[in-house]
Amino acid sequence: MLGKVSRCVICSLSPRSAMRQERVRQLAKRLGNESVYPPMYRLLDKLPLCVACMEAKLPFQVGPQCLVCGRVMMNTPDERCTDCQRYADGHLLQNRSMMAYQEWGKEVIRQLKYRGDEHLSAMLATLLAIGYYRYYSHIPFRIVTNVPLHPSRLRERGFDQAALLAKHFAESVNLSYFPLLRRVKNTDKLSKQAGRFARYQSMHNAFAPCEEWASRTWKAAPHILIIDDIYTTGSTLRACASAIHSLPSLSQASIRSLTLFR
Ligand SMILES: [Zn+2]
Ligand SMILES: [Zn+2]
Question: How far is the CA of 13 from the centre of ligand 1 (A)?
């Protein structure tokens, strides 16, 4: 893969350096335990980035995180954050996000949304795969799905960036992708909305499960992973999880989410 990459996508310098292998190795050790080291190394090495950018520009989450939503909490490891103590509704078991949403994240998400860049979505899916090995590889997911766009937005844009990410991601970690949800309410752009309650209200009943899943039967309640680009307050992902749980056949499913940024 690296052989095809002539330039680091962040700084445009050649991604090859004598030290690359050793530093990718160190980063792989820092991000995961021994059991996931081989895929971690392979995925990091595949990123079209020079090591300097990999180390300096990717704001990987570090430190103890809220057990539920993954918020970094410096002082209280192995706890739930105040938001999760207050708002947890039991539908979304857990969220994990790979990186802090800073300058670079804003730029790549903008590029992905408005251009649907295939190379970019492949790289971001690789970062999600690194997140999967970091946080979730012990969970036997049966279904990978995504937060869907409303059909009218899909027509406008021509592609669904979260679906693109989820498909690439599922492929790279050998899981099965299915479009499980549809968006039935065209919510206002979240950035225009103020406050958590407004987000909650606008997301409430915004999603519904696709009917074909109603008739499926499961030997055991399946583990489901929802992919999205950004976790903001979690109201979108929680609305997706409760839509999945509304199907009797999936009412016992264990639902988690993985996002690139938060
Ligand atoms: Zn670079
Ligand atoms: Zn939390």
Answer: 6
Two tokens, residue 74: 């410096």
Calculate how far, in angstroms, residue 262's C-alpha sits from the geometric centre of ligand 2.
Answer: 12
CA 215 to centroid of ligand 2, rounded, Å = 34
User: Are residue 34 and residue 77 in the same domain, yes or no?
Assistant: no
pLDDT category at 193 given cuts 50, 70, 90 is low
Supply the range of the domain harboring residue 93: 61-261
For residues 187 and 238, state if they share a domain. yes
**Above 80 in pLDDT, residue 74?**
no
pTM: 0.91
Displacement of CA 119 from its chain's centroid (Å): 17
Among the bound ligands, the one closest to the CA of 53: 1
Q: Is the per-residue pLDDT at 59 higher than 50?
A: yes
| pLDDT band at residue 192 under the 50/70/90 scheme | low
Are 54 and 91 found together in one domain? no
159 CA → ligand 1 middle, Å: 28
pLDDT surpassing 80 at residue 242: yes
Give the Å distance between the CA of 51 and the centre of ligand 1: 7
Q: 68 with 1, same domain?
A: no
Q: What is the pLDDT of residue 43?
A: 96
Q: Please give the pLDDT value at position 76.
A: 67
